[in-house]
Amino acid sequence: MSSGYSPVVPHPRPVPWGWTLAEALLGAGAAATMLGLFPLGLLARTIMCGALVIAIVLIDGFTRMLCAGSGLERSMRQLVVGGLTLLIIVLAVTAMPLTVPSPARWALVAATAVGLFVELRWDKRVQVERAQAIAAQQE
Q: What is the rounded distance in angstroms from the CA atom of residue 12 to the CA atom of residue 34?
């Protein structure tokens, strides 16, 4: 006897771009925090950055669950592209000395936001397409 469980929602739909924009802005906020663009101590910067990253993970998980389904894992290509994107951001943020003028640091924050937005939109589109293919097979 089948349980009827499906890893995808019955009618997968694209994730609204506003959620992806929120994730990208939170990621840019984390980069700005670690670049010292907000006058915080080391402990406060660490806590703020951690809270922003947790918020990104929660938004990402809930939007995927609502729009695509809860049991659909990312493909290897999605994992590699996402991992490389995060690696590039982390290396750029840690390599930039705090003595660099503020406009250059804000430019890196803006580039982080744009890069995250583009990567996350692609990632969510691929995820929803996979969910739509599975939902079509189940009908």
A: 36
Q: What is the DSSP letter of 99?
A: T
H or E stretch including 95? helix 76-95
Tokens of 11: 């009618």
Rounded Cα distance, 46 and 53, in Å: 11
Q: Reduced to 3 states, what is the DSSP secondary structure of residue 6?
A: coil
| 7 CB neighbour count, 10 Å cutoff | 15
The amino acid occupying position 98 is L
> How far apart, in whole angstroms, are the C-alpha atoms of residue 102 and residue 39?
13
Report yes or no: 29 and 133 within 8 Å, Cβ to Cβ: no
CA dihedral 91, 92, 93, 95 (to 10 degrees): 80
> How far apart (Å, rounded) are the C-alpha atoms in residues 46 and 37?
13
Q: What is the pTM of this model?
A: 0.85
pLDDT tens-digit series, residues 33-53: 988 898 888 899 999 999 999
